[in-house]
Amino acid sequence: QVQLVESGGGSVQAGDSLIVSCTISGRTSDFGELDWLHQAPGKESEFVSRLTWAAGDAFYADSVKGRFTVSRNDRKDTVYLHMNSLKFEDTGVYYCAVRTLHSLRYDYQGRGVQVTVSS
Fold this sequence. Notes:
The chain is an all-beta fold. It has strands spanning 3-7, 10-13, 18-25, 31-39, 45-52, 58-60, 68-72, 78-83, 92-100, 108-109, 113-118.
């Protein structure tokens, strides 16, 4: 059984940096993509970044391009979202979610971690 657990959230000032992590347990051999999603207060979740599992290619929403970077460790059991130059509008819950190969929906998603940016 695959489980995703986010950690590393917290409260920071605008302009600060923060790293949130997604720790993965279980089999990852059928992972297609791991996405980070952001849910601002009172809003729907939105796409932040994508890491293709096999190739390790990264993609970003325009709102975070140049500020956020996604990476993973060599064992491929932890994925990091490095968040720099944080803005007030980055406040919200960050989720990691996985789409397995050939899947059209997220098959696994963590419970999320809160990030609060004060202006």
